[in-house]
């Protein structure tokens, strides 16, 4: 354990300085010996920023807690330990005709992490967030007590733990309800659009007609090609595979190169090839679920391609009424800064409310951009993207973040104090320390002055 690294996926923040096994963390909590701000659960390290880090304390490695405890093949109700990966859940449930109702862009997130971040997928308009499908969870707090939480039992803690960034205690296990599907395969349709105006004209109808919808944007295209891309829609195929394929791919990045491989010439060529390959036919085609939901999982450790300084990701959501001005402004800001985004995704959020106290998705459009860490220049661009987002009435995603200011967080989540009131005193993250705790200290200073 002492030699193992516990990084965030963006690799732009230092790895956790100290870690203990889940068993030791549980013993510490049950014994009531955890010091204030000393702990944080670490799932599988797929958060891009420092919401999975505790620079001043210790992370608890939850991966050994990886049992699927029970599964009802009639109802789709599954109970599992918090360290179980979504890939394990898919493999277990798929032969019975079930699939998670919500999956993010990677299957290598832990169950506890999916709950703590209230992750979303390509079907928010139909299914809401991951938290909408959590029935119960068990939570161990630093008073040594294990609480069963649901919409009716310990309801305040239940709502705070979903989307609570791991700050309400240690999630030990959870029961989630999966959805029945005809097969794992997806019937995918790729529709090219010339610009963002055409995309916005297609998006709402695409959501009404399909289980899944997401757009890829050619972020580097400017001038009359600005905002062009491909809208992907999908539905589970009536006839297809019920067998989960082997997790991960044969390709990998075994070592970290000394520089960023994903530079502008590479991205320009990649975008042209991707647009040609994916957009050359408008006919529906049946594809495997891994390629549709988790395309980057096929290359292990692909984040290493950004080089030793890692990457920053910025995901914003803006309301429907401001999206047609804000989304082009976000893309234009990145082009003016001369920064290329390898992963540029645009999708529409629906109106299904999460049970979470704090949840990133809300009605509107969400844009995801990622950039190699070039230091001051990249941080300046990210601040500009934050400004555009907040002025449009939007929010910035905390579990994709590694540097947003406290004021941006407060504007994104004005009810953050409700989570702080329910936070377990032993739990803290580097993200919460640099945002909410700064706000809390500032508020205390003002109150003292008054």
Automatic annotation (TrEMBL):
Domain FAD-binding PCMH-type: 9-181
Transmembrane segment boundaries: none
InterPro entries hit by this protein: FAD-bd_PCMH, FAD-bd_PCMH-like_sf, FAD-bd_PCMH_sub1, FAD-bd_PCMH_sub2, FAD-linked_Oxidoreductases_BP, Oxid_FAD_bind_N
Keywords assigned by UniProt, alphabetized: FAD, Flavoprotein, Oxidoreductase
UniProt family annotation: Belongs to the oxygen-dependent FAD-linked oxidoreductase family.
The protein's name in its UniProt record: FAD-dependent oxidoreductase
Source organism (scientific name): Mesorhizobium calcicola
């Amino acid at each position: 354990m002492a030699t193992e690294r516990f990084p965030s996926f963006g690799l732009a923040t230092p790895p956790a300085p100290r870690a203990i096994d889940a068993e030791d963390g549980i013993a510490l909590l049950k014994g009531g010996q955890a010091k204030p701000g000393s702990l944080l659960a670490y799932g599988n390290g797929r958060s891009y920023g420092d919401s999975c880090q505790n620079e001043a304390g210790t992370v608890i490695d939850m991966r050994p807690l990886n049992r699927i405890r029970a599964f009802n093949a009639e109802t789709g109700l599954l109970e599992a330990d918090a360290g179980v990966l979504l890939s394990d859940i898919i493999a277990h449930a798929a032969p019975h005709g079930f699939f998670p109702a919500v999956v993010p862009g990677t299957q290598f997130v832990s169950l506890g992490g999916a709950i703590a971040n209230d992750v979303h997928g390509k079907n928010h308009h139909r299914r809401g967030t991951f938290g909408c499908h959590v029935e119960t969870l068990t939570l161990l707090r630093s008073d040594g007590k294990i609480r069963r939480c649901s919409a009716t039992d310990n309801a305040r803690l239940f709502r705070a733990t979903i989307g609570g960034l791991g700050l309400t205690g240690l999630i030990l296990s959870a029961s989630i309800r999966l959805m029945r599907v005809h097969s794992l395969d997806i019937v995918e349709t790729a529709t090219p659009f010339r610009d963002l105006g055409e995309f916005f004209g297609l998006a709402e109808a695409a959501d009404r007609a399909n289980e899944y919808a997401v757009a890829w944007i050619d972020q580097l295209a400017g001038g009359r090609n600005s905002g062009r891309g491909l809208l992907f829609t999908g539905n589970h195929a009536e006839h297809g595979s019920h067998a989960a394929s082997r997790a991960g791919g044969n390709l990998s990045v075994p070592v970290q190169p000394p520089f960023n491989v994903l530079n502008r010439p590479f991205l320009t060529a990649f975008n042209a090839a991707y647009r040609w390959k994916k957009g050359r036919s408008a006919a529906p085609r049946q594809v495997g679920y891994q390629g549709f939901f988790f395309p980057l999982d096929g290359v292990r450790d692909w984040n290493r391609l950004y080089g030793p300084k890692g990457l920053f990701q910025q995901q914003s959501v803006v309301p429907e009424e401001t999206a047609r001005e804000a989304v082009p402004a976000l893309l234009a800001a990145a082009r003016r800064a001369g920064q290329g985004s390898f992963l540029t995704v645009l999708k529409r959020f629906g109106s299904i409310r999460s049970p979470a106290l704090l949840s990133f998705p809300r009605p509107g459009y969400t844009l995801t951009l990622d950039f190699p860490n070039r230091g001051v220049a990249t941080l300046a661009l990210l601040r500009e993207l934050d400004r555009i987002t907040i002025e449009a009435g939007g929010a910035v995603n905390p579990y994709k973040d590694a540097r947003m200011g406290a004021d941006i967080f407060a504007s994104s989540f004005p009810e953050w104090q409700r989570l702080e009131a329910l936070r377990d005193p032993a739990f803290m993250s580097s993200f919460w320390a640099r945002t909410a705790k700064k706000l809390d200290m500032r508020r205390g200073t003002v109150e003292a002055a008054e």
